[in-house]
Design a protein that fits this description.
Length: about 500
């Protein structure tokens, strides 16, 4: 008897879930790493399915939902492994302060969902906020080996360079017809592109590359630069020049995204890395190397190259025009209107009712439109919800700062610095753009934040032997209390069942 067509999506979801569950059980961190890399290509895969392959939107949407199936499968497997480890160690999980704050945020979001005039839109918004948070708990629950973590960073940078190259190619070679042919259209048939309007010139399409849009493209380039630049500064030999070359390509990609917020976020993130360099007790050797005459000359050359790239792409001119007419800029006026509205309505508008949002269950006619992710949270969950989120992020970043000062592995110091600086860059961007709606962007942010919180535990798992990190030429010895060999941290799943 043939299988009922209506049940085919359920069968496919079951197969995908079982496959991901097997991989997650057998290879926990590599499975999570592969999922993160695929997030960077998720939108491109959907566009290929709809554009060149001509599949209908219904099928493309179904394929898109497999991302959530895989995430749930990984979460259930890691929760099972965490429970098994807790049983074996006879130790009940103790939630961290961050988990208590996450519970508070979840309670406020749940109340806002129940009180929303549009319950379906509220549930959809709730899922959008907390779906990527699962990756935060996965990152805290499965510890990579040193080789696995280094390999993930290498692959991430390599994929980032390809994404940058594709975005640059789109800017120079594609027109609107090329975007339409390759699937960059919405369900209603309108173009899913962002034109760049410059006085006296024809509008040009800002390249999204493989991501949701040019602003996410630019911010992802900024995140990659926040790991490539300090890694290149630490590294010696030919690998340093490979990383500097990759940094140049990533910076060019950011420039042709024409994302002013991404450039501002990059500047803030690099400022954070400078603070790490200045206040780091273990950075004396690096500071000494950076202050040599030859290194200062190379630094001056890099700054000139940076200026040339930004000027050649037109990014500097775009920033100058923005500064000259700042009070008239849309994002400034949009933010001021949101502040006025929240002054009169501190409880917000209602979960799921504020735009811009797209997707199933969200109303097509928005009751209010605000670009800022932080103000969207206030409209959804009240200003008290925004304060709770900010306290959560502040406490988590303070713990990452302390973890960075505690670890001795250069690789984990690199990750902690990235987690701190990338979140500062993102939060600055969230003031003027709704980028928290991007699952791929938030997935990487939550991953590095979670890994940064447990970096000292990860280092202890690596053992008490001297660590030879290929990102530097010298050994750094750390004397640690070695934890049990279990690769799952039970405490990280205090909120797992609730979030699922």
């Amino acid at each position: 008897m043939p299988f009922p067509p209506a049940l085919e999506p359920l069968l496919a979801a079951l197969i995908v879930g079982l496959l991901v569950a097997f991989l997650a059980w057998r290879w926990p961190f590599p499975t999570l790493a592969a999922f993160l890399i695929l997030l960077l290509l998720h939108e491109a895969i959907l566009r290929i399915l709809h554009g060149p392959l001509g599949l209908p939107f219904e099928v493309v949407n179904w394929v898109s939902r497999m991302r959530m199936v895989g995430l749930i499968a990984m979460s259930l497997v890691f929760m099972l492994r965490a429970a098994r480890t807790a049983w074996r160690l006879r130790r009940l999980p103790r939630p961290h302060a961050v988990d208590g704050l996450m519970a508070l945020v979840l309670v406020l979001a749940g109340l806002a969902t129940m009180l929303s005039p549009n319950r379906l839109a509220a549930v959809a918004a709730l899922r959008a906020y907390f779906q990527p948070v699962l990756i935060f708990y996965l990152a805290r629950g499965v510890y990579p080996t040193e080789q696995q973590l280094r390999r993930l960073l290498y692959v991430w940078l390599a994929v980032g360079v390809l994404i940058a190259g594709f975005g640059i190619y789109q800017w120079f070679a594609w027109g609107e017809a090329d975007y339409a042919r390759n699937g960059y259209v919405l369900a209603g048939g309108e173009m899913d592109t962002d034109p760049l309007l410059v006085e006296g010139e024809e509008p040009r399409v800002r390249p999204p590359s493989t991501l949701t849009g040019p602003n996410e493209f630019g911010l992802q380039m900024a995140f990659l630069l926040l790991v490539a630049v300090p890694w290149a500064a630490r590294k010696r030999g030919w690998g340093r020049w490979v990383l500097w070359a990759a940094s140049g390509i990533l910076l060019t990609g950011l420039s042709y995204s024409y994302s002013r917020s991404a450039l501002l976020g990059l500047a803030a993130g690099l400022g954070c890395l400078v603070l790490f360099l200045v206040f780091g007790q273990g950075e004396r050797d690096l500071r000494r190397r950076l202050m040599t005459r030859g290194t200062l000359a190379i630094g001056a050359g890099l700054l000139l190259a940076l200026f040339a790239v930004l000027a050649g792409s037109g990014m500097i001119g775009r920033v100058v025009r923005t500064v000259r007419r700042l009070p008239q800029e849309y994002h400034v006026r949009d933010t001021l209107r949101a502040i006025d509205y929240l002054g009169d309505h501190p409880l917000g508008l209602g979960m799921g009712l504020v735009g811009p949002r797209e997707g199933t269950f969200f109303p097509r006619d928005e009751e209010y439109h605000v670009e800022s992710s932080l103000f969207q949270i206030a409209m959804d969950m009240s200003i008290f919800g925004t304060i709770a989120w900010l306290i959560l992020w502040g406490v988590a970043l303070a713990r990452v700062w302390r973890a960075w000062r505690a670890v001795r592995s250069p690789l984990l110091q690199l990750v902690d610095g990235l987690a701190f600086s990338a979140w500062i860059a993102a939060l600055l961007t969230f003031l003027i753009l709704p980028l928290m709606q991007s699952f791929s962007l938030m997935g990487w942010l939550w991953f590095f934040l979670g890994l940064g919180l447990v970096s000292h535990r990860v280092e202890a798992e690596w053992g008490s032997e001297p660590i030879q990190d290929r990102s530097s030429d010298h050994k750094q010895v750390a004397h640690r209390n070695v934890l049990p060999s279990a690769s799952i941290e039970p405490v990280s799943y205090a909120l797992g069942p609730i979030l699922l």
